[in-house]
Structures are given as C-alpha cells and as structure tokens.
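input
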Amino acid sequence: MRNDTASKPETIFRKDYIAPGFWVDTVEMGFDLDLSATHVATRMTMRRNHDSSEKDLVLFGESLKLLQLRMNGVNLKKSAYKIEGETLRIANAPDEVTLEIETRINPLKNTSLSGLYASNGNFITQCEAEGFRKITWFPDRPDVMAKYTVMLRADKKKFPVLLSNGNLIEEGDLGDGRHFAKWEDPFKKPSYLFALVAGKLVCQEENYKLKSGREVLLQVWVEDGNLDKTQHAMDSLKNSIRWDEERFGLELDLDRFMIVATGDFNMGAMENKGLNIFNTKYVLANPSIATDVDYAGIESVVGHEYFHNWTGNRVTCRDWFQLSLKEGLTVFRDQEFSADLVGTATGRAVKRIEDVRLLRQVQFSEDAGPMAHPVRPDSFVEINNFYTVTIYEKGSEVVRMYYTLLGHDGFRKGMDLYFERHDGQAVECDDFRAAMADSSGRDLTQFERWYSQAGTPRVKVDAIYDAEAQTYSITLSQSCPATPGQTEKLPFHIPVAMGLLGADGKDIPLHSVAYEAQAGATSLVLELTEASQTFVFTGVSSKPVPSLLRNFSAPVVLEIDYSDEELGLLLANDSDPFNRWEAGQRLATRRLVKLTTAVQQGEELSLDGMFIEALRATLNDASLDPAFRELVLTLPSEAMIAEEFKVVDPQAIHTARQFARATITEHLRADLLSAYEGHLTPGKYSPDAQSMAKRGLKNLALSYLLEWSDESTFELAKTQFDDAENMTDRLAALTALTNFSGTDKQAKSAAKSLKAFYKDFKKEALVIDKWFMLQATARTTDVAKIRDLMEHPAFTLNNPNRARSLTFAFCNANPSRFHAVDGSGYALWAELVIALNKLNPQVAARLARSMDRWKKYPESLQVHMKAALQKVADTKKLSKDVLEVVSKALAS
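output
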C-alpha cells in the first residue's frame, strides 16, 4: 500500500482500495520483554482471499530487526521475499499459510509513543492507526481481523504485572526470576486494537454484575501512589456499562475490563479490546488535583472508550477513510451518555452548548482551512493527521442528524439492525447509513453528501409575514464554500428544527400543509434538501420571531437578520435552551465585531446598555440553571470573533474583548459579587452537576470581578486561593490573580501565589501541566516568557502532556501574544515543530496545525508566518506527518 520517502510521501486514495490478498484467522504472539531488546515471536494462520486482486502475501513493518521468517515450517531465504520501505512481499504463496516471524525491537528508543514503547520503566503499546507494524511484520490494516493468543514473559521483579487483550487463561513462574502470563481474546479484532502493558502497577478492582446477571471483573491500573485517584474513573466505567445496557441493549462481552493509565501517551485514550490504555489526564482525579472540567473529561473519555467495545471493536472500519464510522458514532454516544447522567433538560442543553462551542471554534475553522476534508476523506498522506475534529465532532453531528430525522426509537432500530448485520465485520460509513435507511424506510441517499463533501454549509433565512392572510413564510437557501479539491457542492439533506415565538415570548402552535401530521406542535423539523425551499405556516395571528436550528440540529452556519429586540426576546423566552444561549451569543458577537472595528479605526469604545441589561437579567434569574447562566455570561472567544473577519487582527480583537469584559464588570459589579457569594459550595467537594454548576458561575463572576482593579476584588481572589479545599476553586483563583492588572505589590503577591502552587504540587505531573498552561495563556505572557518557562526543570518536550501544556497552549490559546507583530511567536513555533518532529511526529504535526490558516492574517504577519512555514518545510528528514500539514498550508 505504501512506499514512502521523507521527501516525496505517497498519497493514499480511498478509490484505490484493494481488499487484502490474504485473511488472517489466528495470531499467536510471544514476547520476551526487555526495555532495550524485546524479542517478538509471531505465528499466524492465513488463507488466500480469492476476491482480491492482490496476489502477493503483503506485510508491513517499521523499525524492526527481522530475525527469522518461516512459511509452513520452512525458513525463507532473502530471495524468497522482497522488502521495500515498510512493505514485505512474498510472491507465489500457497492458499493456506502458517507464517512464523521473529523480530527484535527497542522500546526504550521509541520516542514516537507508537507501537511498543517504554514509559517510566513500564511497557505500553499504542497501535492505532499503524503502530502494530512497529512490533512485528503483519498485514497491519483494519479489515484484517483475527483471534489473538498472547504469551508475555518478563523479569518478575521489574515487571510484576503482565496484561494483554481479552481473558487471562494462565500465569506462573518460569523458575529463572521471570514469570509469564497467557491471554486469549475470544473475539476477532484488527491489529490496531492489540494491546500489551507490563510493569510495576497497582489496581483498584471491583466485581460488577451485568444486567443479565453475569459477573465481570473491572480493574483500573495505575502506578504506585496514584491508587487514591481512581475512584471516579471506576465509577465512570460502571456508569458507562449500565448506560450502554439500558440505552442500546449492549452488554460487556468479556470476563474482565481493564483500564491502564500512563503519563506518556499521544492521545486521550485507546479502546484496545478489553485493555483500554489511557492518558493519566483522563483517569487520575481527586478533589486536590482535579478540577470540575477534569472530572467531566474523565467521565466522557471513559465512556467513549468503553462504548467503542461495540462501535469500533465488534464492528470496525474497513479502511482508515471510514474512521468516522467508529469515532463519530462513538462521540455521539459519549455526548448522549454525559447528557443523560445530568438528567435534566437544562443539563442536557448545557452539555449540548459545550459541544457546539467546540465544534464552531475548532471544526468550522478546520473546514475553512487547507486541511479541510470530508467526514469520510478521499485521500491522505499520513493517517495520523486525520484524527481530527472533522472526523470526531462533525462526524458526531452527522450521526446526531440521523437521530433528529428518525427520532429516539427510529434511531435505536437503526442501531439494532447495524449490529445484527455487521457484528464481527469491518465495514463502511455507507453500511451504517443503509442500516438507518432500511430500518426506518427512509430514503437517505442524499444524506451521503455529509460524508463525501467537505466544508460548513451556510443556510440563509428569508421570512415574510402576511398579516392579511395570517401566513408566515420561511425560505431557506443553502450553499457551501469551496474546499481543497472540491469547488462545486451539491445540496445537503439538512434537518432544521424550528419554532415560532409570539410577542409574549410563548411558542405558537404550528400549522403547515407540508407537516399536517404534526399540526399544533410547537416545534418541528423542516427538511431542507434543495438549494432553496419555502415553508409556509398558517393561522399566525401576528408577526412571530423564528427560533431556527433548535438544539443545533445541523452543523451549519445560520444566516438570519435578527434585530437586537428579537434577539432579546429569544434570550429571555425561547423554550429551546440552546437557542436562548445562541441569541445571547449573537448579541455579544455583534458588539465585539463592532468594538474590534472601532479599535482598528482608533474610535472611542462603548458598550450599549441594552446588552448589559440583558446580561444582568440573565445573571440574576434564579430560575435558570447556574451552568446555563455561566454560558450566557461567557463572551465568545477571540478565536470565534476572528471567524467574523476576512482578515484577522488578533491585537484588535483582544483589546475589544478585554474592553467588553471590563465594561460589563463596571456596570454589573454588585450583581457579580452577589452571584459569587450566592453560589459558594461549602463542605466536602462533590463533582455532581449542581455543585459544578454553582462553582462554574461563581468562578466566572470572580474572573469578571478581577477586571476591576481594586484591593477588595484582589483580596477576594487571594482569599479563595489560600482557603480553597479543591483544585477547581484554587486554580480559578490563581488564574484570576495571574491575569489581574494591579499595583506592583499585587503583582508580587500574585507571583508569590504562583510559586506556592508549584511548590505544593511539584510531584503531581497533571497539576504542573495546569501550572504551565495557566501561564502560557495569561494575557501578559509573551514569547520571552515562554522561552524562560521552557528552561524550567519541570518542562520537557518528550512528554506530550507537558509539551501541550505550555507550547500548544501558547500557540493555540493566546492569539494576541502568539501573533506578535515582530514574528517572534512564529519563529518559536518553527523551532518547536522541528524539535518535536525528531521526537514524536504525531505531536509535531498537531502543533504544525497552528499555522495552517496563515493567509487569513494581515500581510505584515503573513511574511513572518510564511518564513516560519518554509523553515519547517525545508527541514531535512521531515516526517510525513509534518510535511503533509506544512505543504498543504504553503500551497493554500
């Protein structure tokens, strides 16, 4: 499939898919584990796939020392096979093959954290997408599924714990200071789901009774000293198992389920069959080290990886172009899981808003850049670059549209049919769509365009009210901008959930000839399938205000010309919480754009009373959930404001947003102080939704209050920092103090608190990540400060979490400082990408994405940005991962 060189990497196309020449039925593997010289013996039974045009037996490998290769018991001479790059070919192989391979690898030198590598003296694997080929020669592709039996052997003192996929069937001593463990996975899986963990670990374990009555063993493995931080992960796992049984009728299929936490991991977690390997960030938590956001993240990621057991493992993807088949579907499932655990309508809305904010801020931006690609890509150079928000978050929105169109019961029927048809198979996105169509009797042919067309559709709204006829007509017109390789776009199938509000703010019963079956409903789903369609509602006695795209029913940009008064009505009254929040965001964005333009033109800045009073009313409305009020009071980010401009001026945007925050504080100081005092959470810390909501609003109020430079607000934050009994409140106070613009005395006091925080938590890696990130995103932090922090003894580029906490945070979340007018931020970026490229190409490529929309900035910045991109592109031995990103950016 590949023959890559660093200078001219091969592009892989979906249209060129060829089924494997051989299937693999069973895989037996033996590992003699040694940190610098691990011996791997593999025996696989294979049979020819007569439906394939590939006649050779093809294996893939990378950075392997091949010791021996035997076919059907006969040692193969070098003339019997051919190795080119990462591909090993055996021509003229018989139809039935038993292939035995011995390789040697060096986990200690594997800084890519892909394949088998060493982490703090332990062995860890990460095989998705193509890491298994760094362990042994193998047909390493997702459509090759086999049953695995794995024997692990290692020094018992150094590596007392030996784990792999499936069920433990035998273990014991070998009599020479070593021991063994034999694992068997009863289910077929692709090689990317293989996992191995060995080392000094301890575990929390519980026996858990499934709905069927069967008992299973649940284990959370961590390094010694972290056992007191595993309860939330265990609780999240049990909640996930229970939810999947109740919501989708899916049961855990193994005798045990294991989670292992490691501090060296490129991703959040990995769903290896029965042995999920996690970044410590998404396992370890107690009130002293983890924030509310951390607790929510652990719950979500544990759920996500567990749900993969069925949507990804039992049914997997045929090829990597179908990646969203498992990831988009599983993100939808984990979003629904988190929303269901909250259990209230408002709580579900808060979760929905949080998910949409991420989509708009990151995925919409990706859709508008040189790395834009469909949910099912047509090509790639390096598959690791396509673990993107388009695949995950937009893929989830595509699944959610099925749910919106088919309803709760209809979607469940589609899921049931999907598993009935495809359990144990590697399939395509079209197979999922077919299950949804066949189970519901709906024609979803046009819906395929959500998979094949890139870009964010735009839906323009034109409405006419006829007072005499008492009709209200809504015309929806759709378009989609050109994206790389796709200039012409066909109409999408777009579900637009909507309602109409009267002058009193109440929902109007809806009557439309096209939707007679739903006559009298106050909310319905319009289906936009043409370039332009008009929907007419009758019996409308006065001009209404439309509430469109309720619950964000499709991942589109809605272009509608609301007046401030109409937005105010929606903000105060809409029965759809998402659109209520959306109205507030539109009011805020409108003003922030105007303020940014005023900054650029040197005009006087002002913020109108209508907007401030709308915020005041929301802040003081005790009938609203505190979490919802926090979201309404949170201004659109600088990145979101940037999307409103053809040419982005980061400095002007930052100045405008800071002015808005300061002005809001000036007028709402008493209200903010009241909100702060009214949402304290005394007593023992609890990560329940209500307590989290109170802390969220309280700490948002604190951040606003510290926009007012006086002694009392500073002392409020200082007292909270000193007295806080949980990380959420302590970190919120420290963030406020670090960003406070006060006297020299106050600045010294804030710096003292920053040092005290480090001293208290210097042995807690995840907390020190927060310490670095806090400083990286502080409004006063410049490139020089980042360089100083990179010299700190606690900083290293070798650990992905630590690298992300400082360098990624600065480049991606501190735009006004990263985009320094002298180009120093871009020079730093280039140095970092080049350095990371040598250590970990996957991480380097993620950082490289920070510059892929360089042409959206003023020419004065573009000069520096292009030079930085070119410096990276000209680097010798540049990985495929990084080269693909910078090449597409420069060619845009």
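quick obs: The CA atoms of residues 355 and 493 lie 22 Å apart.
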